[in-house]
Structure formats: C-alpha cells, structure tokens
Structures
1.
Amino acid sequence: MTYRVLVSDPLSQEGIDILQSHSDVYVDVKPKLPPEELLEIIGNYDALVIRSGTKVTRDVLERADRLKVIGRAGVGIDNVDLDVATSRGIMVMNTPGGNTISTAEQTWTLLMSLSRNLVPACISVREGKWDRKKYTGTEIFGKTLGVVGLGRIGSVVGSRALAFGMKVLGYDPFTSEDRIRRMGFEPATLDDIYAKSDYITVHTPINKETSHLLDDQAFAKMKKGVRVINCARGGIIDEGALIRALESGKCAGAALDVYENEPPAADFALLKRDDCICSPHLGASTEEAQTNVAIDIARNVLDALTGGEVRNALNIPSIAPEVRSEIGPYLELAVKMGMFAIQYLGKHADKLEVTYAGPLSKHDTTFLTLSVLKGLLTAVMNETVNYVNAPLLAEKRHIDYAETKNPKTDGYTNLISVKLTSDTETIEICGTTFGEKDPRIVIVDGYHIDAKPYGTILFFKNLDEPGVIGHVGTILAKGNINIADMTLGRKERGGYAVTVCNVDTAVSDVVLDELKSFKAVKDIKTINLR
C-alpha cells in the first residue's frame, strides 16, 4: 500500500529524507501552502506534517477523508482542531521534547540581555555613541528568580538559575511541594513570587486560568524594579498592564519572545521602548531544535502509518489486535486498580509504578498501564479522562509513571501490581483475573484478600478479635446500608486485619462518623469504583 504525505510547513531536510526513504511513502513538500489550496488537496493524503503555520481547521478536517495522521513538528497544537480530529479518528502527534533546551536557552538569552541592557547598548554603539554609564546593568548572582510553571522548560530554566547562584521560587499547581524541593527550588505561591522575585519568567500553556495572569493587580504586588520574561505563549502577560508597569517604574524591564498578536503591529508600543526586548518567537529556532523535531515527527508519522510503535499521540492510542486478545481480560481490572489505589492513598501521587508478573509480562502492556493511569485520574479529576488525554493530564499533574515486568509470579498465573508514591508514603495493591471476566484485587499493602473491584467499597483496618465485624455490620444496618460482598485479610493472628465491603449504596457521613468512633477500627475509607 502506498501512503501519501503532505508537508505543508517548512521542515528540516533531515525529516523529509526520513519520510522519503520509505518505499511505500510518497511525499509532497508544499511549504506555506495557502489555506484555500489546502482545502482543495487535503483529501488526497494519508498524513499531514505541519509546524505552526498551517491551520488545521474543522473545514480542513471535514475534507480529509483519507487522513490518518497529523504530525506537528513542535509542541503546541493550537493550530489543530483536536476535538474534530479525534471525532474523525485522525491521530494527532507532536514532538514535546525537541525544543525544550532551545526554549530554555532563549529564556536565558533574554534574561541576561535584559540584565545588561545589551540590546539598547548595541544599538547605541552602532549609532556612534559610547554611553557606558547609561547602560550599567545588574548582576543576577544572589537575585531571586520566580518560575511560573515547572514543566519541561520551566524546570530547565530553574536549574540553570541555580548554577548562576540565584535563589529559585517555583510555582506549579500540578507539582507537589516535595517535588519542587527535589528540583532545588523553594515552593511558592503566585503572591510569594510577585512579592519576592527580582525576575519572573512564565512557562505555562495559555488557557482561561493563565490568560493575562500577569495583569495590573499582579504587577501591583511585585517588587519595584522587577524584570519579566515570556518565552511561553502570548497573552500570559497582559501587554497593556506591562506598558503601565514599565512607565511607572514598577517594572525595570521586560523581554518578550511571544505576543498576543503575531507579528505585532508596527506601532506596537513595546517595540519602541529601550526597557523591553522583543524577539520574533525564536524559542524553538535553533538548528538543533529544528532538526530534532523534524526527525522525531518524521519517524513518528512513518511508524503510525505503517503499523509500528505509536509515540506522542495526543488523542488516539493504538493497540495491535493480537495483543488486545491477550491483555483484554485485564483492561477493566487495570482501570479499577488505578481508581482504588489513588483513593486508598488519599493524596496527590508523584509516582506510579505498574509491574506485570507472569505470562502477561511477555506482551506489550502499554495500554494496560494507560488503563491504570486513566482510572487513577478519573477518580480525582472533574474533567473527562480517556486513553487519549490521560498521559497529558498526568504530565500536567507531574505524575511520573513507569512499568516493569517479571516473568515469574508467586501463586497466581498473572499478577498486576500498582504502586503509588506520594511525598510521605508508598502504597501497593495487586490484582488478577479468574477466568476472563472475574477481576479481583488480591493484595493491599501485604494483606491478602479476595476483593471484587466494583461499586462502592468500604475499606478499613480493624483489630483481629471477635465481634468487630458484627458491630460494623450493625452500624451499617442502622444506616440502611446493605453489604453485597465482603472479604477479610490478616498478616497474623491477633494483630490488625483489613476488611473490604462492597455496599449497595453510598455511605453517609453520619455512618462514617459512627464507624470512626469505634475504637476497634481505623483508616476507614470509602472508595468509589463506579
């Protein structure tokens, strides 16, 4: 079968060469393709490779009858209607790691230039002047850098600041304080960053929460003489508020690589100020970054078209039919284990480790791990979580996840282990299936049980002594709560045991309070697996 690929934005030759090297792939390279021409020809292609220039709108996608893959050579997909692509079964891929270093280095280029008044000084020398005193700068050693957003780029920017002897304040609502400290930064609120930072750099996506994040109110809270940098997305800094802060002297300088409107108009006020450096969206514009993203997207698109491994797909997971037949019976179990584990932990998880033991370990278990992740996130988030967006949501919440495999297992044909780690503790649960449609959770933190993962579960530890379970049953009966299934497990006689009750209805706060007042039980949790 021959696949046709359209490259509609400038792409490094190394990427084009990879696409053209495949005998079953025909490549059309048409950079800067006019929108009307794209509409006319998109129905002829199986894959579309773009950068930021091509707008993949609903109209384009509705004419893309053959299109299977959209490959974005870069990170942002603002120019792709992801919802429509997903609804039409079109995989959307990007290259999230290709320009991390280049954008971080651009941030530092602007920060250092801003500190030493490098751009206006250069212009002055070219004009034949020699105003050394006028362009006296400031050292960054010992200063405080506030980093808003600690994803790939923000983390790298902060790490470079430590090397310069700066103090780094880090803010990210999806990163635990312990993780921020492990980076070498001091956890901070936005108000802390505003009040204490000599420099503020933003590294967040643009959305309702971050649009005009640095506005008049934010600048009013900042130290006099603060300097701000934006190499992330235009609109995070309110440009009108920035002008007012510069004019008042509250802000000593700004450096922008991105703008609310690109390119900015010729009469854009910030272009005329010596205290503002403006560059034309150069964050990813290094030879290395351009080459990296071109090679990455070419390989990813080829693999997606020809049945290879799918990498960095943003909306459509892939699983081979022969693999699905082997792991299918474990998919529901994996989702339920993720839901159970995070509710049992009861706090933010920094790390998820999934281990597959037994014959199951011989197969590609990526989809099973995604299932665990989907269950985990579904239990703690209000938004819809699916196999498409689960990895992105985990990344935003800074949950690292990994899988390991062991061909041997003790006592079970196959066993899935889910281990969650927070900033203070680690919990582990294990599950398996009996037959094809009978999933069970069989171990919780070393306690062997035989729990059915469905519905509402009442989980608690209790003293291993006569009468405890009967008393719990009496309390539940008073609350008109019926027990559908129950399993118990203990490590030793006379110590603590665990009890797992599947109940038919939700457990009210009144019943929970009465159970918690019973001294023979502790660590009572309700776990919703619906």
2.
Amino acid sequence: MDVNAPEWKCQGLWPCYNPAQTFANPFFTTNAMPHEFLSDFLSKLQDAGELIRIAPTVETALEVAAITDRACRQTDGGPALLFENPKGSSIPILTNLLGSRRRLCLALGIDSLDQLIEKMERMLRPESGGWLEALKLAPSMAGLSKFTPRVIKTAVCQQVVKLGRDVNLWDLPIPRCWPEEANPAITAGQVLTQDAATGERSVARFPVQVFSQQQLIPHWHRQHASHHQWLKAVREQRQLPIAVALGGDPLNILMTGAAQALTVPADTLLFGGFLRGTAIDLVRARSIELEVPAASEIVVEGYLDYAAPMVEAPPIASASGHYVPAEPLPVIQVTAITHRANPMLPAIVPGMPPTEESWIALAMERLSLAMVKATIPDIVDIHLPFAGASRNLLFVSLQKTYPSHARQVLSALWGSRLLGLNKVIVLVDADVDVQSEDDVWFAVGANVNPGRDLIVADGPTHMDDHTNEFRGTGQKLGIDATRKHPEEVHSRNWPNALTMPAELIAQLRLRAAELGIDHWQ
C-alpha cells in the first residue's frame, strides 16, 4: 500500500494535522469533565483537529501498524487515527489515541503535564490518617471515598453478548503489527483478575495474544500482580477468572501504569477514579465471577485453568522496539465477548520510539516524580527519554548537599518499585535541566570520571531487556554526573561552570526589543 497515494492524501491523512492549532483550543482546560465513554473523547479530538478518520479499507495485518508508526514519527506525536473500515470487520480500529502531549492533557483535563505533579502532591498530603494511609488510598480517608469503584446493574459494554459457540476472537479486528508476529495481540486492554481469598483486584496492561478462536495468551511479567494471583490459583487448584476490557475513559490506559508507580500496593480502579475525578462504574461480567469497567467498548471474559498445560507462546512485539521470543505461558479459555452496539477497538502499536507508549510514559514520569519525591525528597526532577523506551534510560536531578549523596539517591531509586527497573540511571545536579537531554549528556562529559563515577549493580531488570543472560535479572548502571565535593576527588578543587549573572540576563530581557533579540522573551 502507498500511503502517499492521492486517495490517501484526499482523506487529509497527514497534511491537515496542525499541532499548533490545538494550544488555542477551548477544550484544554483544568475544569474538563471526565470522559465517560471513548466516543466522548473522540468528539473532542475531532473538534480539536486531533483526529484523522481513514475511510479506505485497510488490512489489520501490518497495514494499520505501518500507517500508525508513520504518524507517531511526526513532530509532537502526530494525530490519533480512526480506521473506519478495517478489512473483514465493521468495527473501527483506533490507534495513537494518547500519542501526544496535547491529547494527554486533554484526557486528563489539565493544561500542562506538570499539573499532574501538583495533583499527586495533593493526594499524598497527610490530611487524614498519615501519609502511608494516603499512599494506600484507603477508601475511608476524607476525600477519597468518592473515588471508590461502584457497581451498576446494566452497562453499554453488554449491549451485545456472545457466549459459547458464538465466541470467535477472529471476529474482532485485532491488528497484527509486525512481520514476525504469528498472531495478532490486544495491546490497549486493561487485564483484570481478582484473588478469590483476599478480594485483591489487579488491573494491568500487557499484550494478550490471540491463540485460537476461543483462546488467548497473557504475555505478563513476573512483576505483575495478576501473574502472582495465577501462581496462587495453581497452588490452590482453582480456576482464575480473567477479563480484558477495551475502551471507556482514555485515562483507563494511564491508570494501569500509574498505580504500579505507588510505593505500596493500591487499588488500581480507585486510583483511576482519583485521576479522572470521579468513581469508575463497574458491572458484573456475564460468564465469570468478576466486575469489569461498565463503559468499555469491548470486554473479553475467560478463565485460566490451573490444570491446563502451558503452551509455547509465539513471538510478539514489545514496546522495547524488539520481539519477545517464544516462551511457555498459560492459556486463557474465552467464555464470552461482550461489547457496545457499535464498538471501536483501541490498539497501541509497539515499536521503536517514538510511539504512543513514549507519550504515555511521559505522563507516568510526571506522576512518578510526585511519588518518588515523597520518599526521596532530595530529587528535583526526573525524565524518561524517548530513546530509552521507558525502561533503559532515566535522568534524575537532585539537590546534592554532601559527599556520596548521589550514590545514596541511586541506591534508593534502585529499590523503588517502578523506576528501579531502569537499566541506566544518570544523576545530575539540581541546576541541570533533565528535560534537556543535551544538558544531561554535557554534565556526563564534564563531571564523570569513568573509573570512579560508573556504578554497576546486580538486580531485577525489565523482563523485555534482551541483553541479560537470564530474563528479568542482570546488571544496571548508575552514572554520577554531579559536581564532586573535595572528599570525592581527593585534593583537587572542582572548577566553576561558565555562567552569566542572573541580574544581567534580567536586564537584557527588558531591553530585548530595543536590542533586536526578541527571541529571548
């Protein structure tokens, strides 16, 4: 397919997308209401010039992903794409939904992602019950009870119900994104499980691969709570109900990652209610003992049988930009598919950054900053560069006050639940802007002695890091690029950096128009 062909250009696929128009759009306001349904959000994207509708027929195998990958590589992330006529299906496919800073802000109802930090800091403030209770998101806390998930009797996600022989996963236009993938995979679903004994609920997002007409394979990691719940179910010789929900409030995608950043376990759906400002409605699943998000577009229900043998799962694409090789995994037996009368199927196309995942990680970065500062207050800012695929690089600035302070912060970061899996962590001084990657690498070049400032440690790593001999464990690197105290460099004095006086810069800004240097403003 030639996406430069006239029939594509006449759809306005690329030329009509103008990111600059969005900043003046009235929808970007901190008073925005939550989006109950995915269609509500798409209407706002349409009005904001952030959505491109693709009317020609498109193959779900590779073509949807190739077009989306090209869109993601545009400046500022490109538009959201709605493929209205995927071949062989009447269900549209939605990609790159949150693939820009502007759409993230629109989904969150904020003007800047930095407002996420303020929002999280307010939540972590010990107004009642102490900061630990705040982190646990105890529903009894003042102000948090209104975010507790509530169960309703009927829901749009069950307008159409398919059970038994009517269940056919191939009826869903699930994209196959990359050539070496044997089967398509659900990439934008919230995977829900629940511990039968404790009632503890897990909501996570990881690829769920189609294996047959009525079978799925969960490509989870050992760090996921749902994986541990399955291991417990096997030990106790019982089935584990599982559901995959697609759509609803776009913040559902964010909540699954954000809750994992908390320093203690939390109810993900409760945390999602906090993010969107109101509780998430749930409805009883039709074939299993589980509650699912009521506003979903599509819900796939099933169970994991403790006695069923694992299968060799085919290779699958990862957000790391590489394939995950074949591995033994359990099989989900699908018992029902429910959906709206006219559903859409959201999909996140994995690939080499920048992708939609890169922008989602940016929001996670801002949420994580508030939470990590609650336990490591010396940290000033953090940044997950796109080039690190949200797992290989982390830049951290800190207010360094004593010798080896950077190493102490590094050790604390390696012990954190989410940021500790990053393969390379670079620490710089507070006056270095970690959002400017050139400034960070300048600090590395200027302040690092390789024999002294490179710290290698063994520990858990991201499961998709293919460089380790054993999956999920290996070596990580810390780079201390802070200016050194005398005790850290023996007897040598550390030179001062070249800086202009702040007063002089302020005076010149006032004279910018007179001097013809308006770009300083």
3.
Amino acid sequence: MTPTNYSVFLVDDDPAILRLLGHWLEKAGYTVRPFDNGEEALEAIESQCPDFLITDWEMPGMNGLELCRRVRQLDLPHYVHILFLTVRSSTEETVAGLEVGADDFLSKPIDLEELLARLRSGARVLTLERRLSLMAQTDPLTGLLTRRTFFENLEKEWSRATRHHVPLSVVMLDIDFFKRINDVHGHPAGDAVLKTIAELLKDGCRTADVICRYGGEEFCAVLPETNERQAAHWADRVRRKLASHAMQLGDREFHLTGSFGVAERLDDTQNAEQLVDLADQALLCAKQSGRDRVVAFQALNQSNDVRVDQMDPCGMLFYGVTARHVMTSMVVGLRKSETIGRAAKFFLRSRTNSAPVVDDDGKLVGMLSEKDLMAEMISLDSWNRPVGEVMKPNVICYEEDAPIRSIYEFLCRVSIRRVVIVKDGRPIGTISRGTLLRWFSNLAASRGLVENETSADPRFNVDAHRSRECLVELAQELSRQAIELGHRCGEETDDLVPYVVGGATRMQELVNDLLSYSGSGTAGGTAVMGGTSLD
C-alpha cells in the first residue's frame, strides 16, 4: 500500500507543529486531518477511523496518554497505529506509553526522514494485520464474510435499527439439492457453484448490505433499513436470477434453484440471533413446501383469506376455530432454574419428549427437548446445571386467539412437531400434529362428515334424549375421576406414576365416549372440541 491509501490524524495544541507536519505528510501523499485537542480527535476517530494517529504527549485537557488509552477501548473497524510525539525519553515514561497502547515514539524536534520512515514501518504492520484480519473474517472459498464476522456486523445493525427505529431484515438462502452436485459431479464442481452463488449475491447487494456464507450451501444476508416485504422482493429477484443463470460444468450446462426465508425485526423480536432463527424457520417452510420460492415469516402467522362460502365441508371445520379450542392444556411445566436431572425425571414420568420452560413469573422463555438432555449426558456434573443454560431460547408460539388454520398450515410446512400457545406471555397449552389429527378426526365424526368408528357399538345406538343423558353422566364421571386424581397427587407417596397413568387412562376413555356420544346425531351443532390430555 502506498501513502495515498492511508489517512493520518494529527493531534497537537501547537498550531505551528500541526501546519508543519500536515505539510510534510500531505506532500508525501498521506491524507491528513489536524486537531488541536484530544476530545475532538477522539470523537472523530469513532466516526471516521484513521490508519495512523500521531499525537503530542503534553496537551491541555485530554493529554496524549489518555487519548491513546481511550482509543484502545473503542470498538473500531480496524487497527490504528499510534505514534507519540514527545520530549520525554525516560524508561518509565516509555513503559507508560506502551502500556496504554502506543506503537512508536518520535522525539522532538522532529526529523522529516525519521517521521516518514516510522510511518512506512507502521504501514508494514498495518498491511500484515489487515491481511490476517481479512483471512479470519472471510470465507476462503467464496470471499464472503464468515459466520462469526457476520454476527458481529448484524449486532451493530441491530443496535442501529433499535436506536433509530428503522427496519432491519434478514434473508436466508439454501441451494436446492446441492448434495446431488457433490455426489454426481464431485466437490470441485460444488465449490464452483458456491463461488457463482456468492458472486450473484454480491452483484445484487447494496454497499450497506452484509452477506455471509452461513454454512455448507446456506447463505445469509442482512438488509438494513429494509422491511420484510422489501426484503422478500429482493430475495425473489435473486431467486429468479439464480434460476435463469446457466452453470457450466465441463461440456454440460445446468440450472440451479434456491429456497429463501425472510424475517424482519419486530418489537417482540428479542435479539439478533432470534431474527436469524425466524428467517431460518421461514427458509424451512420454503424447502418443505416445494423449494424454489421465497417465504416471509410474518406470512406464516396469517391465515388464508378464503371466503366461507368457498370452503368445502372439511374447510368449514376450520372456520371460527382458534388455538384455544384445540390446544392440549398445560398442567405442569419446567422452570429455567430447575436442574437438568429434575427435567430428565420429569420427561420420563410424564412420557413427553419436550416441554416449555418458564421463568419465575411464569413467562415463556424457552423450550427443552430430550435431544437437549442427551447432549448433557456426557457428564454427570451437567445433571446439576440449570435448565436455562441448555434450553432453546427461540420458541415458535401463537396467541390463544390465533386461527387454527394458521397453525395447521405452519405445521404442514415445517419439520417442527409442536407449537406453544401463550396468553400474556405465559404458556397455557401446546398443539402438535397429533393434536390436530385427533381434533380433526373427532370433529369430522361429530359432524357426520366421516363414518364414526363407534357407530356400530350398541352402547351408542340410543335416542337423542338418552344420548344427552349419557353425555351428562359421562361428564360427571370425568369430573369425579379428575377430582380423585387430584386428591391422589396430594397424598404423600413414593411413586405417583401408577395413579397418574391409571387415572389419565380412565379419563381418556371417558373423553373418547363423550366424543362418540356427541357424534350420535343428538348433540347437533356440538361445540368445537380440543385434543385430549394425552399427546
């Protein structure tokens, strides 16, 4: 790098020194900006980071020593080479300067040739430092940012968007069926494809946009001051450009497609990591729903605008139904302060594979699964760690009044098996694929849309009046069984599992009978029924 590539900030309270050094350095090709005090120089360094800082030691207000210390505390985009101008030459003073971050010293009176030589020496250090920094911050194959550097930039954009109340969106891209390219054509061909994708992304980005190779065949883009709709349009332009781009492997030509997930930072988005996770959820939906498409996360929470009179009989079952009607109610959960060992026992006894985690106020803070616990089995010491340290903080949840069709479509699109239903931030239930299947089957049977499997059972071949009487009797017995189970759980006993499993089984049988009687043609227009308690 030549002097014309470097900027120098000069700080000295002596106007004559500033003029002299500024003239010398500008004549040598450096870009110079003078300051007569440390406070102004520090403020300018934060907004326009220089390559070199040449500062006097003795100055009124903030002296050179303090200025150097403050500069080293800043989070700057690159390293600043600091050179002290001083008449001080004692060992103690030199050590003091080095301790606060000085790189070099130049004694007064200043010699031009020595000044330029020390700057050339510093330039060699800066060149090496930036070369190493570039290697650490960029993916060697594509030249895009690494995942770690990407998140550092995302955090800065997150802070700026929060401070200035401007939109911020993230786009995740996954190359469709990329594994086939490596398997059929070899990894060199796969590398060539990744380079091509990187170039397409670079060409389609603004200067302020941040692009990285997220991992494997996944890429991620941060689009500052861009809302979700605009980000989706950008992603679709890239998608179409990718689909129309002809890839050349030897004498063969082929085309690739990509799946995109888009998410915008909203008021309830907790942090930058969650924003990326939301985009990843949308990407998953794009892949699960056919690939070569763009899916926006907010669209997943919006039900289709379908007129009631256009629905088929099965579609009518969704009309007016909310999550509250269908969810499996939560009786117990996990607190983030509980140990992993207690959580394992909870999973084994309750025969579940995941559970919401709440804080001391009962607010939803995460999700814990058997897989999370399995990862901790490598050490018994981990058994005493709190659940909050291993749970997944990002939970897909819906409000209790969310349309059930939205949840149904979401679970159809993604590999997630269960969502959490919340009210005022507190989990009150869950809806899984099994919950929806059971609800749909029970309700369709009760409406006479499908044959009731129990219709041949003589117990249910009764008149309308008797059927209502049976419904009342069954409901009363179900209530009695629930009260008895509650009393059992309150007794002091070593093992409650037999009572819980037995009681829950009897109650599920009663619930099944209730559903069957409700479909016998008597309860006409039965209310929407939710899932049973065993999921």
4.
Amino acid sequence: MTLRFIIFFFIVSTADFLSQGLMEDKLLPTRQDSLRGSITPEREWWDLTYYHLDIKVEPEKKYISGSNTVGYKVLKSYETMQIDLQEPMEITSIIANGKPLKFNREGNAYFIEMNKKQKINDVNYLEIFYEGFPREAIRAPWDGGLSWTKDNNGNHFIATSCQGLGASVWWPNKDHMYDEVDSMLISVNVPKHLTNVSNGRLRKVTEYKNNTKTFDWFVTNPINNYGVNINIGDYVSFSEVYKGEKGDLNIDNYVLSYNLEKAKEQFKQVPMMIEAFEHWFGPYPFYEDSFKMVEVPYLGMEHQSSITYGNGYQNGYKGTSYPSNSKWGLEFDYIIIHEGGHEWFANNITYIDIADMWLHEGFTTYSENLYVEYFFGKNAGSEYVISSRSGISNKKPMITGDYGINRESSGDIYAKGANVLHTLRQVVNDDKIWRKTLRGINKDFYHQTVSSYQIENYMSNILNINLEKFFNQYLRDVRIPTFEYEIKDGFLKYRWINVVEGFNMPLEVIIDDENRKLYPTTKYKKIPLNNLYINVDNDYYVLEKNISSVSMQPQ
C-alpha cells in the first residue's frame, strides 16, 4: 500500500490565481493518482475510435465477465499501451491480430506490450477479456460502483455510477476524460426476465436457450467513459417524439413496472426541459442516439442519452427546494432538470480534467434557474439562484490547480458556479448576447473535451470583455468581492476590496432613486450624492461594506 502524507501549506497572497489567507491539509498525490489522472506516455500515442463492450452480468453472484474490443488510431509509434481496470476486477487475457499480448499490472493500470510495430495513422484493434466482482457502490452516485438491489417485487435492480471514481471500476478502458471514444456498441447479457438499458439506441435483443437475453445498444456520438452505463431491472417503457430544433427527437422512458403511471405524469417535464435548454443552449447534442430517462435505485446521474432517475417521482430534490431556498425549487423535478442539463454541460462539452469540474456542475446548476426563468419569468430565475447562496462555503476555490491527479475541488462548484455565471450575465447586461454566448459554447465546442481556460478565453472573446481577473477572482480565490463605500459630506466614495490585483468588475446600484452603473477598482473613486442612500443590485454575488457605519452585508 502506498503511504499518503498530510502536509500543510500557505497559499501565496501575492498571486492572483491563488486563494488568500488560507491554510489547509492536502494529500500528496501518489503514483496511482498520476496514472489515473494524467495523460501518460502510454496513453498519449493512441486515439480512441471504437469500443465494443460485450459482457455477461450475473446478479445472483454479483459478477461481471466478458470483453472490451478497443479500436484506436496510432498518433505516434510506441510499444506500450495503458488500459485501466480497478481492483478487484481482473484482465485475464488480451488478443490482437489473433495472438495473445503480454501485459503487467501496476495497481489499477495495465501496461500492454504491443506485438507489432505501431505505424502512424493505422487503425488497430485489440480485445481485452476480463472478469470479477466489481466494487459495490456504498452511497451511489457519490461513492459509486455497482448498485446491486432488488425492487418491491423482489426482482434484481442493478445500475452503475462512477463519475470521479472512474468507469474502470467495472469495465476496462482508457480511463481519462481527454479522449472520448468516437462510437460504441454495448452488449449486455442478463437473465431472461430482466431488461438492460444502456446508452444510445437499441439495435437488437437476442434470446438464448440458457434463459438469458443480450441487449445490444449502439452509441453513434462520442461519449465519455463515466457516461457509459448499464441499468438492469424489470422495466417497462413508454415513448414520445419531441419536435425539436434538429427535427424529431425520440424520447424513451424505462421505469419499474409498478411505477408506470407515476412516471407518465412526472416525465411530462422531460420535453419541457428539452424545450427550455434548446432555447438557451442550442439543439440537444445527441439526436442520433435519442434521449432516455431510466429509473435506478439511486438518486440519479447524467449518463449520456441515458439519464438515470431515482427522485421518487416528486418535484424538488427528494421533495425539498434544495439547493435553492426559494419556492421555485418545488416547481420542477430536480433530477430531470439538473441531470438533463448535463447533456449540454458534461456530455456535449466535457472537462479534460476533473479539477475543472465546475464546467459541468456550475453551468448545469445555472441551467436550473434558466429553466425557472424560461417558464416562470426572469425574476423567478433570479430568486432561485440568489437563494442558493446560503449553501456556499468559500472554504476552497472552485479551481485549486490540482491537475493530472484526478482530484476534485470544492463542493461550491454547484451553487457558487451558478451564481458566478448569474453575476457575469449582469456584467454583460444584454440577454441576447448572453444567450448567444451559451449557445456558442455548445456549438463551437460541440462534442469536445475542454479546459476551464478554453471556456474562459472563449467567453472573453465573444463578449469582448477581458474576464481574466473576473474568473481568477471567482474560480481561483475564496474571497467574495466586497464593495466598500463611505457616504460623507454629500459624496459617495467607493472601491473594491478582498479582490485579486486588477479586479475591476462594474456594478449596478441605485443612487438617488436612479439605476446607475459604477466602475469600481481597488482604488477609491468619488461621486456626488444627494440622498444618503445606496442599494447594490442583489443579482451580483458580492458583499457590501459601508464604512460609514462599519457594516458588511452579503448580496
């Protein structure tokens, strides 16, 4: 076992991109962290083109066996390939060109010795055979793996969830987010009385004399590893066709037999979700693969074209208004809307490194209040996102800079991420341009993996605003920008404090009963004031400090 040591460090206060005045303990990355989280030499020389995951699931044994055929294009000549599969699963053999390949294991990484010269631009295939008892999920989807449960009728009810933990917890693959496979066939053999639902479209179902069935699902579009899933249960289905921006979109819903009527009512929100998000973000990104809602024994997850659902057929988050404290959180089913929003932000555009996970969760949490705005009005959307601020801790930055080790950052990527985007919308102050920007992100980075810097720079360019200091402040610092002001002798004196050097975000206020836009910097500015009153727009995620009375109020 590799030892981990706890260290303390001080974050440098003079650098814009680091948090200020904090000290926290961190675990030094291990060799396994680096093998999992970095683009190793054994990964970078080949580009994924195709997977065929062909497995048998034995519910009584909680056992998986089968193979994964890997198609890849050679980018540069190299002799060793890295494939990942987590213990206690095991690769038993690997075949290429009809011959076995030698391999060795280092923890959860397998290193395969290629048996022929890898020529640039060649597309080659190898077949990986594996089996074992995959890790059981303890608290899915947060502590993922396989959920082996039974439904109310005693039928097996099984599902996968593995974001962060990695898809290699249950199948062998190139387990890094930077390289998405171009297309994928998923073949799952299960007991005859059960149904498996996976990503993409169902191609065929084959019955066998041993009382099993194999379900073949094909994914036409690129897909990230953790987005691949299997869901096994006593499912019934119902469908509809949505008339969307790109034509007819098939919506298929798979639910437990005894929940059919409840699902038919609750899932009326699915086309509503697609309508709202096509308005804000552009066409649903996977028309070719259809859209599915699939009932599972855990809360839910954004598996591509196969959104998993376990929210009990009720509005809110398990019936509560969380993460918002407003009434609007009970106007929709959190899992349908949030996980559906991930089709645009997580599945269409995907982070290269989990350290930039705010790109998934910040934008998708923000999509919730855009959904509210679309159906209930702009003020309702603002109320929804503003009321979520009570859940922001500001203990860690949303981006800590821990790249290459598969390490998540702060839980603030949800509520704070949404409020940062809501604040930026106020800075833009043009709803048409803002919507164009959100749609542009999904169009210009269509089916791509991206870094936070790519999205930050893109938004700066398309909005024609230098957002470097804005993003460094809100993403890489924990301090909330504070509008400090003093009213004295008929003047308002103001500036930004608790900010990175050069922070100069404009701010809307009410002064003398008029809406005004101020342009504070870290140096004091001064303007005349008739009434001894100023009100800062609550849509900005800032604090205000009136040094006339030495008070500080969160906005």
